[in-house]
């Protein structure tokens, strides 16, 4: 079989010569010079700072798969990627083999894409770097196996002079000396470009051979959030995913679903440490202050009999400020708390307040949870995190949590008290030994500022987080920021000592 990469590169050189004949390099450069003052967003910064690290790719066809989405529009899909949680976008611009064009980047920018855009092509000549800069790319791909080391170094310098970053793609250990050229980002391609066979093991194999402080991207063949969690553990910051999204009917929506799964898994694996949920918020300023503490979940109570009830009008105001205030490194999930509410009512709230999850604090059964999940999916076109709260006095109450294993994403164990929730008293945490279900749980019920040491002594394989409410309040629904901040810091200090 003829090596497809060689065929592409041979053709690419001819194509570039043809383009140079049509538009000489000096004329192209004159156009580039006019825009050089404008900056493009950094791919490296986006990957190092973002939550997902996903570089979602716009790829209409490939030599191995043929057309994947011939009708896919560059003014539509990249923007949908941006809206659904991508950290950056990669756009295939090669025409003959991948059905792309430079104009796709221009169109994506025109549609409102402000994320970093990677110019994905087979760059063999600096002429292509000028083209990349002209159409609005932030970074270009350089593939070690098709460039001599010196040639690669000089293309890298030109890219930098043009204000673009370089993602240097490696495939095996023989190319490791290219890393000394100091690319901004180093990619490990899991796809053998000669045969097109993908194997993510390639990233795991090369991870430890790359400098630990290098921004690293695993490219191709990633199709599950589990793989991302494992790749993160060996030091990868970015994950380039194309086919898995492009083959879906709606690539943006598929990315949204993938990101949601990834967030849920991150909680399950406690990758972020012990997650903190602050529940019963009602006031806009107070919400913003709590967010600044870097907590993981914010709970809003939609149960009218609670002293922490938040009205829809108040919630609209909170949501508006929440969306504007949000920066990628502080992104708590918005959780709505409901007590025996009708499915329709909950779905309306999920859509109106763009809730990431719901906590069901009444007598909701498995059937109700299933109907809720499918109603949210058909109305909002996405999944939500469902937390089933259970009131605990005995081991038997804990065992009841097993019933929800296939319907909920998480459990919350709260104290059974006079009120439905927010009683401010502990239950005996030792009864949780009886819980051997697969769902992660949040420990709740009367947790206060003096509980830090006990909490860190308490361990359970499924403990994913803690819930803070009435014992951190100045009045019902208003949290004491100083008290919360001291407690969260104490937990972090104690935890670091423990590790
Ligand atoms: O807090 C409430 O007023 C409340 C009312 C009705 C249903 C749930 C409610 N709270 C939800 C929670 O998850 C609380 O944080 C949980 O009950 C623990 O509260 P606390 O005992 O005050 O720590």
UniProtKB/TrEMBL annotation:
It holds the Pfam family PRAI. One of its GO terms (biological process) is L-tryptophan biosynthetic process. Keywords: Amino-acid biosynthesis, Aromatic amino acid biosynthesis, Decarboxylase, Isomerase, Lyase, Multifunctional enzyme, Tryptophan biosynthesis. The keyword Membrane does not apply. Pathway: Amino-acid biosynthesis; L-tryptophan biosynthesis; L-tryptophan from chorismate: step 4/5; Amino-acid biosynthesis; L-tryptophan biosynthesis; L-tryptophan from chorismate: step 3/5. It is an enzyme of class 5 (isomerase). Its EC number is 5.3.1.24. It catalyses: N-(5-phospho-beta-D-ribosyl)anthranilate = 1-(2-carboxyphenylamino)-1-deoxy-D-ribulose 5-phosphate; 1-(2-carboxyphenylamino)-1-deoxy-D-ribulose 5-phosphate + H(+) = (1S,2R)-1-C-(indol-3-yl)glycerol 3-phosphate + CO2 + H2O. One of its GO terms (molecular function) is indole-3-glycerol-phosphate synthase activity. InterPro entries: Aldolase_TIM, Indole-3-glycerol_P_synth, Indole-3-glycerol_P_synth_dom, Indole-3-GlycerolPSynthase_CS, PRAI_dom, RibuloseP-bd_barrel. Residues 277-489 form the N-(5'phosphoribosyl) anthranilate isomerase (PRAI) domain. The keyword Lyase applies. Residues 5-253 form the Indole-3-glycerol phosphate synthase domain. SUPFAM superfamilies: Ribulose-phoshate binding barrel. In the N-terminal section; belongs to the TrpC family. HAMAP family: PRAI. NCBIfam families: PRK00278.2-4 (NF001377). Bifunctional enzyme that catalyzes two sequential steps of tryptophan biosynthetic pathway. The first reaction is catalyzed by the isomerase, coded by the TrpF domain; the second reaction is catalyzed by the synthase, coded by the TrpC domain. This is N-(5'-phosphoribosyl)anthranilate isomerase. It comes from Marseilla massiliensis.
